Amino acid sequence: MTTPALEARDLVKYFPTGSSGLLGRPTNTVKAVDGVSFSVEHGTTLGVVGESGCGKSTLARLVTRLIDSTSGEVYMDGRDITSLSGRELRTARRKMQMIFQDPYSSLNPRHSVGQIISAPLEVQGIEPTQGVKARVQELMELVGLNPEHYNRYPHEFSGGQRQRIGIARALVLDPTVLVADEPVSALDVSIQAQILNLLETLQSELGLTYMFIAHDLSVVRHIADQVAVMYLGKIVELGPAASVYASARHPYTTALLSAVPVADPARRGREGRIRLTGDVPSPIDPPSGCRFRTRCWKATEVCADVEPALVDTGSGHSVACHHPMDVPVSVGHSKP
Amino acid sequence: MSQPPLLSVEGLTVSFDTPDGVVHAVSGVSFELQAGQTLGIVGESGSGKSVTASSILRLNNSTTSSTTGRVLLDGRDVLGLSDDEMRAVRGRDVAMVFQDPLSALNPYYSVGDQIAEAFLVHHPKATAQEVRERVLGMLEKVGIPNPEKRIDEYPHQFSGGMRQRIVIAIALINSPRVLIADEPTTALDVTVQAQILDLMLDLQKETNMAIILITHDLGVVAEVADAALVMYGGRIVEQADVVSIFRQPTHPYSWGLLGAVGSLDTSTRGHLSTIPGTPPSLISIPSGCSFHPRCGHALGAGSACTTKVPDLRAVTGTTSKSACHLTDEQLVSIGRREVLQ
User: Fold this and answer.
1) Which of A91, B105, B230, B293 is most buried, with most CB under 10 Å away?
2) B31: burial class by Cβ within 10 Å (0-12, 13-18, 19+)?
């Protein structure tokens, strides 16, 4: 067994919310992430999908230690980074960098591209052997930007080019793990494909490990080796991408796949389509037992009483459900 | 067509004066729409799709924008109406649903009041009792559970999907004949998006209204539209019924878009097909065909592609219209090959 590049064990994050009384003690907790475990092998991609409020962005922040977990651990290359602080944490962060969603707000408009990309070097106090400028220009070339634009400012670039700047900044420290939170959702379709191709090329050239968070199932399908589906702070299904997309076992996953509009008018109103009713319940007061049961058409009494555990159904495909789907249903993307 | 169209847009051209120069947002856009029909307008950001829609309702700033062409609603040109006459059209004949339901609603008023306001504008003599009944009926229609209680609640008490239902209720309270929906589901999660699209189609069946659906998502067009316009650089580059646009696309830009989406849909891993480059700035639109710098089929420097704007013309052997300098035979044969890939 090799040591995974990134591993999370039973991660939990509760946010206190609301206050009352003289001391203003929090009265409620939002259970944003509630017992999430996964591991990602070197050079592979874990895709995390889910709807808004499922805790996927909080998970990204926990993994990168941008926020501290309530309990649970994060391991990088077998080393527990959960309790690191100060200088140790800063050194550990060299190996794990983040790409953000919005290429407009994640770049300082008053800094030139050169300053933006070299900022991590400055923070870490690293002097590249070939010099800062040469290193930055090398990266600009790598991500498909013109190195001559070193002194330009973010507003002179398009959305796709800005995202390339963000990627170059994430790569400047030679990380092994990249955590990307919705890196293409703010971009046009034709540009999304360009950025995804770039991320794939970088992965194979640099041997990077990705944790890729998205709400768009087709994007995740394209880039991920493993897929984790989250609902209200928990992973409900986890497995190899091909297996999860071809034969989803959790009712929520099948509903999610079924809801994706397909670019084929002939398949309009196709049979076996699942329509969920209602919205995701509040994470302040999640349903007892299985959190999906309030929207699930297969729910029975046991779902309200017992919380289903994430159980391996074979070949690394796990599902947390009392009544998993047994036959591959006709879902959005499967071939007819 | 025997029936005159409900809505007919002819040669719509819209430009905006900005400090950076004149933005040519929409150039020579023409299309027709029948009652009960759904038209999907597809394009990337800056393709002119939203401005086309807002021009129909004359929502553009009148001091900085200039609009030419005709927008005929039942044969009457709305661009020539007085402001008072226009106010009578907005919300009653043509209504709009916006992208972000949070900013489309006023946080200080109850949702009931906001729906009622839209009704009272066109029915000033309605009694309070009448209005409340009407609003309750509308809430029920758009699928808000427990309307008696929720009518007096405020936008923040609703989820994103429920807010969009409220916005749809506001748009439909006067039973408009044309509904313009500008990215109505873009801000929503995919399971909620499916609910909202279903709702819009159900209400369309009931009232026979025409829908203009603006979206960047080809999947949404395939699911709900009868016909589609593909826009690029402020112009229509392809116009076709919804099956043709996916089965027999006749413009290189449509091929690129379908390729980018198609390979996302089907391949698990591997290289995605892309359109190189980025969409043009509408201040300095490339000469000739505005797509030529990104087009893999462009004929090169000095050719018609770089010097002459292609007309939108019917392509022989198809039911589609395309604005491309390639021959009809080329458009048909390459289009077929691109789709098969």
Assistant:
1) B230
2) buried
Q: pLDDT at residue A144 above 50?
A: yes
Query: Contact, A167 vs A143, CB < 8 A?
Result: yes
Residue B88 parent element (H or E): helix B83-89
What tokens does B264 get? 């996302």
Q: Which amino acid is present at A203?
A: Q
What confidence tens digit (pLDDT) does each residue in B145-182 have? 889 999 999 999 988 889 999 999 999 999 999 999 99
A21-64 residue pLDDT tens: 666 677 788 899 999 999 999 999 999 999 888 899 999 999 99
Structure tokens at B240: 């076709």
In whole angstroms, give the CA distance from residue A176 to residue A156.
Answer: 30
Whether A334 has a pLDDT exceeding 50, the answer reads no
Q: Read off the pTM.
A: 0.86
Cβ atoms of A289 and A305 within 8 Å: the answer is yes
- Window 155-184 of B: residues touching A by CB (8 A cutoff) are 159-162
Q: What are the beta bridge partners of residue B155?
A: none
Q: Evaluate the CA torsion angle B246, B252, B254, B260 in order and state its sign.
A: positive
Query: What pLDDT score was predicted for residue A252?
Result: 94
The nearest CA of chain B is from the CA of A276 a distance in Å of 6
* Residue B313: strand pairing partners: B322
d(CA B101, CA B187): 8
Range of lowest pLDDT (A145-149, B9-13, B22-26, B258-262): B258-262
Q: Do A259 and B44 touch (CB under 8 A)?
A: no
B241 membership: H or E segment, kind and range = strand B235-241
DSSP A149: G
